[in-house]
Target: ABC-type nitrate sulfonate bicarbonate transport system, ATPase component
Amino acid sequence: MNNSMITIKNVNKIYDNTTALHDVSLDIKQGEFIALVGMSGGGKSTLLRLIAGLEQPTSGSVTINDSSTDSLMRVMFQEDRLLPWMSVLDNLSFGSKDKNTKAHARQLLDLVELGDYANHFPNQLSGGQKQRVALARALMTDPKILLLDEPLGALDALTRRKMQDLILDICQKQNLTTILVTHDVEEAARMADRIVVMKNSTNSYEETCPKNRNVGQIGLVADRVLGEILEEPTLEKQTA
Ligand SMILES: Nc1ncnc2c1ncn2[C@@H]1O[C@H](COP(=O)(O)OP(=O)(O)OP(=O)(O)O)[C@@H](O)[C@H]1O
Model:
């Protein structure tokens, strides 16, 4: 049985004179957690945008192997993108008066441990709390695919670590197919089933992470991945 959720086949994405993606192929299984890492400008966010359907490839194909609905996929960004004039609860339910919608929103706030903050406004929350609201909001439509574009980049190390555990726990329990773009190789090694390194706009290196890994294994995987990333010639060398 083919249980692949996302199939990316020979994708190229060219903007004017810039090749953002070159011959990228990737098969992502249902329930798999993928981390995309690599040098700045390597095409990570571009690939995420193509998967989200926000842009189209120049050539090649991105196929989502599920009956497409609007709620299939949700993206979470580095900025929380909450509406400042709405309470936390309304940010999830978009002000809906529907009892079921509100109950679902409250359930999700409990899930992200913010049950007591439903009536707060975004400016009354810490950065980590705002990102937890953003996570709860992303889950409102019961998506099957979660796309995470550096969602923890602005958080301090301790909050970041707690958010990593929370996201992992939710993704596992809800069997979400997840793609995380991150600059933090240790975060990738801690969270992902598979790490894909974008090198010269190509996904030329992959690392499968051991299950139930310990701290030592996380460190080893992170080191190897970092070594792969740093092998890439600098931008100056590429254009020379
Ligand atoms: N809309 C656009 N128009 C023109 N060029 C773009 C556009 N979006 C991305 N690019 C270029 O494509 C390349 C890949 O960009 P992308 O943002 O995908 O990289 P990234 O790996 O996510 O980088 P970072 O880690 O810095 O966020 C870069 O050279 C970038 O300048």
User: Anything to note?
Assistant: DSSP finds eight helices and nine strands in the chain.
